[in-house]
């Protein structure tokens, strides 16, 4: 997954979040075609879209993109917090969330097992899980200190335990099991780190094109000049034999100097004192100088021997090494070049001989010392981290705490030449694969048994036979036991003889074994991940692990305080009468078997979660999938079998409560408030869903506490139905919200204009006093379609009409003309006149539409609104006057010769088929389609002219002039127009004079005078039109006050009823949550009892090896970090870990 860096190229964009394009399937249990190629194609397609995570049930599969993706930020953390895995996009945060919440909910230890080969992204996955847990768990002064140590331990261990390989620029060359302990509230209380299989051979001989451990290069690049000089170091890695052996010194996008400072800061954060840090740096310098000590051959009493090369460079390196390691040059030289052998003489007397070593043997002795020292430093750092994590001595009360363990260990390794280290690494991976098989299948079968569900098991490869071949006690004995026995019987011998004897014993014991074969000086094991050939040479020396007694005695005399401490740790079980001599020299094979057994016991005591990491290619190239390599990993990781196991049983399984919460919207009985049992609610849901998914009836199984759906297709259909139902709900909600927001706005406008009316003394009619604004009152579908056609013709938005209703228009003679429609949109106002369905313009004309446009004005042409102060339905719209066109506008007409045929019928123009210009469009038509006559005054045509049939009624026949309208909804009309324009005002006057058009005027030219009387009437007088308003229509003030009191009383009653309903719903929810909590506690108790029973069985069979819980002696005082800065330092650590 890459390491974030300031120098990285363009970063990929996040495809995760609430909105994204779905590529393939998120959960491969739901693949339509189950095959290795189907899995490959799904992973390949998702990788191409930067969707690197995919589920197989609860197993997360990650394909390394070899580029940084911005999908690990705080927003993404918030997106995944408190969400179920099924509700979110696949992500390592989803697995971390499920792990953490399951631990808190079930009070059970959890572990995350991250597997995959080197370079697949395991370390990055581990770090992101740690980041997430640190980000969402509780806080507090002590808690933040644990988190900070938790996070800062990673860059420290990476510096000393990671290296560049040909496959990975930041490959973990050790295994790590990190346990974080939590209290009942989910707050970190402490932790513990266990390290496995440090690749010590890399210290003295990194592979070609690879690097030694990062810390050496950081040291040379980051030390200040003065410190570098005092340690006798240079800034060139090529000056040191242990570093130049590989020919690789740098890593792309990695600044070793910056990393050095980060490592030093991390060491302080985990509690390592400054003096201790100096001693560690001094040890590292000593190891580098030790590697520059060379040897030359000499004859020692007729035997081939060696001595330290007599040249200035070697002698200087020896002196510097001795100075830093606290040793003397003569004694260290002799330890290199001579070796003590002890033999049993007759009579039981032990005789000792000092045997000279040739240059190769002396070099091996030198390298053994370097490896021992570096491994001891690494163990010391792990110890410091554990001390820092053991806040308030939490480890002794670990039984009262829940834990989350994160296992990040070597991936399976197959090289051209494989030795003892690869053998141990692949053995551990075999054990992890065995756990995966056992826990996956066992938990599956156990769940079905508990729920009373039957299923048909599928065949799979159980790799227990390979594990027994390697570690079995026999008969026949495993390879580790054969190796230990060979070393025990040939303890005084060295070289290839021991290795070849070991090979012959293996071949004899395991002859005919299906997974073992001998091939020359190699042997082959058929691992679950493929066949691996191991070179037997070097197995004996590598398995011995420890230094010789004489070298240990020399190291014991060191004046270096750190070496003294480390040596004391190593020798605590030694023979006090013989310093440096161990009572029992444990072999490397024994140690790894013991560690692995303890690890297996710890993992078996947890509920596992899996992350399977896959390398996209071997060249570390972004946006590149190597089909062959990925397919091989799919095979040996057992992804196909994993999919089959999930599908062979049930593609979906979930608690009744969880299923009810997710799908309750599918049934009317459960969609609102359901007070019954969860199982009953689920049955309602399934019954309702069967109407759309008939096959669901045979696909569902009902367990004791869970519901099971057999096929992924059925569950997919259920999910699709849920999505469609949500789509319907969304549409309803959108409509309701739009209606609510609009009505709330209109209510506010109504209140505002009521205040204006009251201020101006405007009388109100009872019919309009509390009438709600509905804005659109056109209920005739045919008329509505005709109106919308007019709006569409003018390019106006028909999706939202601000107002539409019948109105009366006051004619020039003062007559109320009833057959008009007023339409207001966001940009224009339309006055349309209803027409009879027969033409009265021209007998030859086609039937005109139901409405004819009399006036279209942009809203900006309205200058104001005038009303009378009385309770009447009249209002006057003041319109901006426009100049009259004296002659028809022909600027848009086409030239007579520009078209040879009718633009509507394609008839060719001739003597018998004449051209006619449409006065509206300006186009040329034949007489067949311009049979209608229509006045178009806004084009300068004041008398009826020919207009093409398709536009009849769509253009204005009135000039721009003030308009007087009558409507019971005049207040709403005024509010809508004022709200749309926001620049005009409403005025009130008893005498209103309209500004009329000089040509084709249709509005009254006389003054409109308003007065009160017994009845409403319009009277025409010379120069004056009197509108009499009935005084009885005006509502008295007492009525208004009484109405307000009733409204307040009703609102109070509604609020009380809502509160009572909410109380009932709350009580029901509390009962349901109580029942679910009781069920959860019952299941937790059952699970704990099962775990205890399983532990007892393992213990009685000897399978449970107790881990060493002895408290290690503290070295020096821990650095006291300021507690007040814990939270800010934690935030800084999180930011660094996210690459910000």
UniProtKB/TrEMBL annotation:
GO terms for biological process: actin filament organization; endocytosis. Residues 1054-1097 have a biased composition (Basic and acidic residues). One of its GO terms (molecular function) is actin filament binding. Residues 762-979 form the TH1 domain. Residues 596-618 are annotated as: Actin-binding. Pfam families: FYVE, Myosin_head, Myosin_TH1. ATP binds at residues 116-123. The keyword Zinc applies. InterPro entries: Kinesin_motor_dom_sf, Myosin_head_motor_dom-like, Myosin_TH1, P-loop_NTPase, Znf_FYVE, Znf_FYVE_PHD, Znf_RING/FYVE/PHD. Keywords: Actin-binding, ATP-binding, Metal-binding, Motor protein, Myosin, Nucleotide-binding, Zinc, Zinc-finger. Residues 1045-1140 are annotated as: Disordered. Residues 23-723 form the Myosin motor domain. Coiled coil: none annotated. One of its GO terms (cellular component) is cytoplasm. Gene3D superfamilies: 1.10.10.820, 1.20.5.4820, 1.20.58.530, Kinesin motor domain, Myosin VI head, motor domain, U50 subdomain, Zinc/RING finger domain, C3HC4 (zinc finger). Belongs to the TRAFAC class myosin-kinesin ATPase superfamily. Myosin family. This is Myosin motor domain-containing protein.
